[in-house]
Amino acid sequence: MDIADMPPEIELLCCLTRPNADYRRALELTATGLDWTRVFKLAAMHGVRPHLLHAFRSPQCSVEASEIKEKLERFEWAQAARNLTFTRELLRIADKFDACGIPFATFKGATLALSLYGGLARREFNDIDVIVHHADMPAAEEALQSCGYRAKFGAAHYRSAFLAYHQQHMFVNDDSSIGFDLHWGFAPKGMPFPIHADTIWGNLETVQIGGRQIPTLGRDDLAIFLAGHGTKERWRCLGWICDFAFFYDSHTEIDWSALIARSRQIQCERPILLGCTLISELMGISVNPKILHSATRQPSIQALVHSIVTGISASSTEADAVAAGTHVDLVLCETSIQKLNVLLRLCFTPTVGDYETMPIPRSLWPLYHVTRPIRLVGKFLSESL
Fold first, then answer.
1. What is the tens place of the pLDDT at every residue in 370-380?
2. Can you tell me the distance from the alpha carbon of 186 to that of 193, in angstroms, rounded to the nearest whole number?
3. What pTM was computed for the model?
4. 47: left (phi > 0), else alpha (psi -120 to 50), else beta?
């Protein structure tokens, strides 16, 4: 599906949320008659309301959209206050980690809003993401608990048995309802990902927040992470495509061919090629022609682009169905060995669902490695009948 074949409301979002908004095409789309209620709903679903409001406020924008602009401005006030609350909490926990001698780095959230867009209110985010060394996880959990956080899913032994394959644990503060994702990896264990957590620590950079420097991913690592994260999630959110587009557009010093070669060494070059193709087609970014040529030579990337654009073009219900019906774990797999490894882990790694289906004493939990394949086969047969 080409961008010209997308519903006009989605095409409008693509025109106005890109780094260099296409106001001429937006005006043409407005003249055809748009469902502004649907525009706002889609902007919310794709996390691009700040981008849309920023475009409407530009002196170059002659699109008349007073009704949706009012809604966006009301959202901006609420989101700005919420983002400030999250940012203050990030600073509090950063101070605690420093006091405990725990090395950490933030990514997404406040640091990405500031480094990419220059302001906390310019990007939607709803939690705090921090990565630490795996060996520091117990100390980091203890530090979070001292700050009023509790693990969202059970005790440490339960999470270790049924959730550790995610390589992150979720915590929540009951007083503020703030969510905190504590990572020691960027993707579920065994899933191919273009950057490994143990390679980031010598390349960290900092973002100034509230008068102090907060460590975050280095530029090359962030470029690869944004591409990997978007691909892992099948780029179903236009906001992630905007992030990658703004990053590519504002970091002309980056040698993308070198990053692709680096990712190719671990057999995971698809995310950057896919991301670059999407920002070229949907965001109008002038991507290096050699990169686009490399992407066109891979039929799997072209099929994914079509699938992603189709999903974004669908209504919210249809988009959810598209996302739910895809094997997201296999999107990052480029070889048969990678696919086999992911499928084997899927078959033999116990999950919360296994425990909820058949709760047994902790001493018998190793049995889940045997019962899980049986449960999956039974589930498949029942759904097939």
1. 999 999 998 87
2. 8
3. 0.93
4. left
